Amino acid sequence: MRLLSIVTLAALAASAPAANAAVNVMASTEDLADLTRQVGGDKVKVESIARGYQDPHFVEAKPSFILKLAKADLLVVVGRELEIGWLPPLVQQSRNAKIQPGAEGYLDASLTAKILEIPTGQITRAMGDVHPQGNPHYWLDPGNGRHIAKAIADKLVKMAPADAAYFQSRYADFDKRLAEAEKRWDAQMAPYKGLKIVTYHRSWPNFTDRFGLDVIGYVEPRPGIPPSPSHTIDLIGEMKRQNVKLILVEPYFDLKTPNSIARETGATVLVLAPSVGGDKDITDFLKLFDHDVDLVVSALKQTGGK
Ligand SMILES: [Zn+2]
Questions:
Q1: Residue 195 Cα to ligand 1 middle (Å)
Q2: Residues 6+ apart with CB under 8 A from 63
Q3: How far does the centroid of ligand 1 lie from the alpha carbon of residue 204, in Å?
Q4: How far is the CA of 45 from the centre of ligand 1 (A)?
Q5: Which residues pair with 198 in a beta bridge?
Q6: Which of 18, 29, 55, 245 has its CB surrounded by the most CB atoms within 10 Å?
Q7: Longest dimension (CA), the chain
Q8: Is pLDDT larger for residue 11 or for residue 50?
Q9: For residue range 244-253, what is the model confidence (pLDDT) as tens digits?
Q10: Does residue 98 contact residue 141 with C-beta atoms inside 8 Å?
């Protein structure tokens, strides 16, 4: 066996990943970190920046993230401007050429996903924090999890071709487990097709589109704008007219307004996790939907469904 000097080892560690060395991945969110683990297995080392219980629009840009980004071979981002308020300066300050936008080690996970709410026509400030590239909460459709996992697997194959067969078989296994789980979730949600609900923020269009729920309004008057009394009164009126009995709220929003709307309308407020890590039992992408589908179904059973 050839002996490597410490200097050579350090040089190897600093260069592109050698065969059998783990690809060092940073993901902007825990969802992307888990999907990377699903296909990368023990051939990747993954960490995420945002925690699943945090509002992904607003993440504190800690200097420790810059050091981690400096050492990354691959950065996986949600894109569609979700991270626009905090990620670009971190990536810039990492001075890591490999992971700058457009570089080989920068993967925008949205590029192969189904994106909803792409605005047509002109965007004005009056529309609130509208995402010009469409709704960035797209991972909340399990089908998009499949597209994201495939994009990550393809990228890993390019970066570590010696492990191509490994990544491809991990992806095939994930695809199979996801397909089995999707049958279960679809069956659980089937009785509630067309049911009208309200959500706090526009986090759930991919989830509701996939499972056939109809979102008739939002607690926020416009995306990113806090609740206002006049909008709340309008929303209460609309919920009464349309007999809406469920309000979905992300874990990082204040429950005061949703609770007062619930008191007025007899609706149930349900705090639903939008991400892996959003609750202690949500340790991976499949458990995210196990958790959320179970919660929605048991809430609808209690409110009597339709
Ligand atoms: Zn949003």
A1: 22
A2: none
A3: 9
A4: 28
A5: 217, 247
A6: 29
A7: 77
A8: 50
A9: 999 999 999 9
A10: no
Reported confidence tier of residue 304, pLDDT bands at 50, 70, 90: low
pLDDT at 306: 53
Asked whether the predicted pLDDT for residue 13 surpasses 60, the reply is no
Locate 148 and state its tokens: 């994201």
The pTM (predicted TM-score) of the whole model is 0.91
Contact assessment for residue 294 and residue 288, using Cβ atoms and an 8 Å cutoff? no
**Interatomic CA distance for residues 68 and 49, integer angstroms:** 9
Q: Which pLDDT belongs to residue 21?
A: 73
Residue carrying the six token digits 């993901």: 27
CA–centroid distance, 114 to ligand 1, in Å, is 16
Report the alpha-carbon distance of residue 264 to residue 292 in Å, rounded: 25
Give residue 132's pLDDT.
Answer: 81
C-alpha 90/C-alpha 101 separation (Å) is 12
d(CA 112, CA 97): 24
The rounded Å distance from CA 203 to ligand 1 centre is 6
**Residue of 37, 300, 12 whose CA lies nearest to 171:** 37
Q: In what order do the strands lie in the sheet with 106-108?
A: 44-48, 23-27, 74-77, 106-108
